[in-house]
Amino acid sequence: MAEPPEVRVTGDEAHLATTLRVRAALDALPPRQRALVVLRHLVDVPVAEAAELLGVSEGTSRGTEIRACST
Predict the structure, then answer these.
(1) What's the CATH code of the domain at 63?
(2) Residue 9, Ramachandran bin (φ over 0: left; ψ between -120 and 50: alpha; else beta)
(3) For residue 25, with 0-12 CB atoms within 10 Å meaning exposed, 13-18 middle and 19 or more buried, which class applies?
(4) Cβ atoms within 10 Å of 64's Cβ, excluding its own
(5) Mean pLDDT of the 8-13 span
(6) Which range of residues forms the domain containing residue 62?
(7) Average pLDDT estimate for 51-71
(8) For the segment 27-54, what is each residue's pLDDT rounded down to a tens digit?
(9) In 10 A of CB 63, how many CB atoms?
(10) What's the number of domains the chain is made of?
(11) In a domain, 12, yes or no
């Protein structure tokens, strides 16, 4: 049986694949967890500011972030 041809992934294709995986992971999160992950990791908002924006305490914000990132 012949070997399958080697597939080369360009930088653009790798970036697209990563973007799609991140998007799927975010889509799988509940809305509050998704909002917190976006604020903290994509927008780089500090914990205190993210908590204020979401109307929760800093402790709740941290716990939500931990649960979201371990999902």
Answers:
(1) 1.10.10.10
(2) beta
(3) middle
(4) 22
(5) 74
(6) 30-71
(7) 93
(8) 999 999 999 999 999 999 999 999 999 9
(9) 13
(10) 1
(11) no
Higher pLDDT, 10 or 47: 47
Q: Is residue 54 domain-resident?
A: yes
Residue with tokens 């917190």: 36
Total length of the chain: 71
Q: What span, in angstroms and rounded, lies between the C-alpha atoms of 30 and 7? A: 36
What count of other Cβ atoms lies within 10 Å of the Cβ of residue 56? 16
Q: Can you give the pLDDT at residue 15?
A: 85
**Residues contacting 31, CB < 8 A, separation 6+:** none
Confirm if 37 and 68 have CB atoms less than 8 A apart.
yes
What is the DSSP secondary structure assignment for residue 4, as one 8-state letter? Answer: P
How many other β-carbons are positioned within 10 Å of the β-carbon of residue 29?
18
In a domain, 25, yes or no: no
* Residue 19 covered by a domain: no
